Structures are given as C-alpha cells and as structure tokens.
From TrEMBL:
Domain of life of the organism encoding this protein: Bacteria
Protein keywords: Membrane, Transmembrane, Transmembrane helix, Transport
Taxonomic classification: Bacteria, Bacillati, Actinomycetota, Actinomycetes, Kitasatosporales
Stated name of the protein: MFS transporter
Topology with respect to the bilayer: Multi-pass membrane protein
Annotated localization: Cell membrane
Key word Lyase present: no
Chain segments carrying region Disordered: 437-460
Native species: Streptomyces lomondensis
Gene3D superfamilies in the cross-refs: MFS general substrate transporter like domains
C-alpha cells in the first residue's frame, strides 16, 4: 500500500494544537453539564422549583445536544467543518451570561436547551475535524483523550461551584452558571483561523483547496503524489444522510447509538445529580457531597489512562466489552446495599468511574472510524443525538426516582441499563485497531486488525 500523507505522518505541533482546540469543546461540555448539578439545590430554593422542574433543567441541555448533534452533524458534512468550528461558542458564551439573570425556571430550561444545541454541534464538528487530520498511529489515543478534557471540565465545575458556594453569600448559582462564558470566549479567539479538513475538501472535489491546506501544514511533504493518494482515498461517493441508516452502515449506526446511550444514561445522571445522590446515601449535603463528586470526577479522568494505553494494543472490541461487564458490578452493589457505609458508597462510585474509561474514550473513536468523510459528522451527530435523548430521559427521571422509589432501586435500574450495554457490545462491537481512516470506514465490516500490522509512522 502506498504511503499516505496524513495517515503516515509524524505527530506534529499542528496536531497538538488541533487536539487542544477540539478538547476545548469537551472541556466546556463537561463544565456546563456538571455545574448545574453543583448549584441545582441553591437554584431550586431561590426559584421555588419542584423535583420535576429540577429534572427538566438537568435534562434540557441533553435534549439540546440531541437537536444540535442531529442537525449540525449533517450541516457540517454539507458546508464544511471550519466555518462552524467557532460560531457556536458565541452562542454558549451569550447563553451562559444570560443565565445569571434568570428569575423563572422556564427561561432557565430554554437557555440550557440552547446551550445543549451548541454543545451537540461541537461534538459533530470537532471530532470529525480532528480525526480527519490525525495519523493512524496516534488516532485512537488522541481521539480517546478528548473525553479526558470532558472530565477536567466537570472537575473544574465542581471546584468552581464549591468555591462560589463557600464564598458568596447569596446567588452563588448565578455566578457559577455565568462563569462558563470565560473559557468560551478564550476558545472563540483560539479557534479563529483553524484550517479546513483536506479530507472533506477532497470528498467535495475541491482538490486545489485541499492541496493548499496540506501545503500549509505539511510543507514540502505535500507532493503531487501524496495529494493524489489522498484523492483516491477520499473520492466522493454521493453519500447522504440516509446512508447511515442503510446497508453496512445501519449496523454501525445502531451499535454506536446503543453503546453510547447505554453508557451515558447512568454516567450523566451521576454527574448531573452527584451531590444529590451522595446525600441520598447518607453523606452530608452541601460541601461534603460536592467534594465527593469532585473526587469521583477525578477518578473518571484517571480511569481513562489505562484505557488509552490499551486502545491500540489490546484493541477496541475487548476493551469496550470488558469495561461494560465490570461497570455493572459497583452499580449492582449500590442497588443491593443502599444503607452501606459512606466508604463503601464512595468505593463503588470510584470503581464505576475507573471501569468506565474504555467506553468513555471510545465515544469519540468508534463514530469517526466507522463512517466515511462524506457522512462522518452526520454519524457522530446521530450517535450524539441517540445517546443524549436517552441521557435526558434518565436525568429527568433520576430525581423523581430518588424521591418515589428510593436510591437502591434507582441504582439497580442503572445496573440493568449497563448490563444491556454489555450485551450490545458483545454482539455488535467491531475492531478497527491499526486501520487507516479510509479503510476502517469503508463499507466492508471491520474485522480484527492483524497483530503483526501496527500503524506505520514515518519520520519525515
């Protein structure tokens, strides 16, 4: 097989910059979706909200993620990645500032929904753009690291929220929700001038524009032969939105949507209402439960580290299958022992966080590897949409479940959902380790990557 300019390139400072810019979106996603859980109790008191309204505020951003992923994934495949890579952050900054002045729960639901749309768009735009620039040897590890930015953002939200609650006499929740505008503005400025994906340009027949972008990044390595090799990989096939629901891609779409949904329902519920859940297990409310949630958040981050080491050696399929199997255990223990000591409760949540590393990093790897350039952002958007509508339902029902059936049965339901995720992965998960992007995303079903065929790295 001939050398590929992007797939076989060495990892450059440009790739690190693209990762940092894309990770900014995940940082904001983790921050915005977690900060509301930290301040929901104070906000509820000030605005006189019911448990149902608390659930709606927690779920509205996830419903927005459904809409944003579904709509803007397809828009990104039609008009390009670069144009939308910055604009949606303006919406996030504006809505975050507006949240500081809300006096009605309904308006808060609307603003959270708008923020969710922008975040859903970023999932599709950022992951597609980054994956299309990465060399094969680093693609799995770097794409997987995106979720670590999510957990860093979530941890930052808990720490900022705790600090504001501890230092601000009243209205701390307003400052906490508005604080997201600061990183949003930083990334608006940083993302200006980001180059378009050459793979997308080539899939649209815009060869000269792709050549100019490749020359800008790779310099003299962007030879005519190297560009022509990419042209052959990314030749357009006229694929549209419905392609992800037909033929070989239908099974991939079902797999991505289902595993993402069945992992995210418990994870987002825990993140959104972490302090509330810990309080239900008997831990003191306020600062102690927030610090406990921050600890769990850090362990979600730590759990990604061994998964990142295994993703390109052990492979995608065994990692996700065994991760789901192990995630069931701590949730089942929590469900069967709702009166367990605080140390046992925290240990179970920490174990769940550590075991969730595999599926967490694969949220960004599988959708971008299993679909071709023409529908890659569309597929990511569909996966985001399916997972987030399920997460929205779970997040909405969690406070109601805690109130009506108790914490034990609620955790058992989470364990059953995770067990279903294990069944889906066991029967449907493919292997894409060591395959070039065009090869992994072709219509043929990916099989196991040969052990003696590592991704090749050149030293240009």
């Amino acid at each position: 097989m001939s050398s590929s300019l992007i797939d076989d390139a060495r990892f450059r400072p440009f790739h690190r910059k693209m990762f940092a810019l894309t990770a900014g979106g995940q940082f904001l996603d983790g921050y915005l979706l977690s900060i509301v859980g930290v301040v929901v109790l104070g906000m509820s008191q000030d605005l006189g909200m019911s448990a149902s309204q608390e659930g709606l505020i927690g779920a509205s951003a996830l419903v927005g993620l459904f809409v944003g992923g579904l709509v803007f994934g397809r828009v990104t495949d039609r008009i390009g990645r670069q144009l939308l890579f910055t604009l949606h952050f303006v919406v996030i900054a504006a809505a975050s500032v507006a949240s500081m002045f809300v006096s009605d729960p309904t308006l808060m639901v609307v603003l959270r929904f708008v923020i969710g749309i922008a975040l859903g768009a970023d999932y599709a735009i950022g992951s597609a753009l980054l994956s299309e620039w990465l060399p094969t040897a680093q693609r799995g590890r770097v794409m997987g690291m995106l979720i670590m930015a999510w957990f860093v953002g979530a941890t930052a939200a808990y720490l900022v929220g705790y600090t504001l609650i501890s230092t601000v006499d009243s209205g701390a929740w307003r400052w906490a929700l508005g604080s997201a505008a600061v990183p949003a503005v930083v990334f608006i400025i940083a993302r200006i001038g980001t180059p378009e994906s050459p793979r997308w340009l080539l899939s649209r027949g815009r060869v000269e524009e792709a050549r100019a972008v490749l020359t800008r990044v790779y310099g003299t390595d962007a030879t005519t032969e190297a560009v022509e090799s990419l042209v052959a990989d990314e030749r357009g096939h006229g694929l549209g939105f419905t392609e992800v629901f037909r033929g070989a891609y239908l099974k991939r779409t079902a797999f991505v949507g289902l595993f993402w949904l069945l992992q995210i329902v418990p994870l987002f519920a825990i993140y959104t209402f972490g302090p509330t859940i810990l309080s239900a297990f008997g831990m003191s409310g306020g600062g102690d439960s927030i610090i406990g949630s921050a600890l769990i958040s850090v362990l979600f981050l730590i759990g990604c580290v061994p998964a990142l080491r295994l993703i390109d050696t052990w492979g995608r399929r065994p990692l996700i299958v065994w991760s789901f199997a192990l995630m069931v255990i701590p949730l089942a223990v929590l469900g069967l022992m709702p009166a367990a000591p605080a140390a046992v409760v925290l240990a179970c949540f920490c174990a769940y966080a550590l075991f969730s590393g595999g599926p967490s990093i694969l949220e960004f790897i599988y959708p971008t590897e299993l679909f071709p350039t023409e529908v890659r952002a569309t597929a990511v958007g569909v996966g985001t949409a399916v997972s987030r509508i399920g997460a929205a339902i779970g997040t909405y029902l969690l406070p109601v479940g805690l109130d009506r059936i108790g914490v034990g049965p609620t955790m058992l339901i989470m364990a059953v959902i995770t067990l279903l995720g294990f069944a889906v992965c066991l029967t449907m998960a493919p292997e894409t380790r060591g395959r070039r992007l065009a090869e992994a995303s072709s219509a043929g079903t990916p099989g196991p990557a040969p052990a003696d065929r590592p991704a090749r790295v050149t030293t240009r």
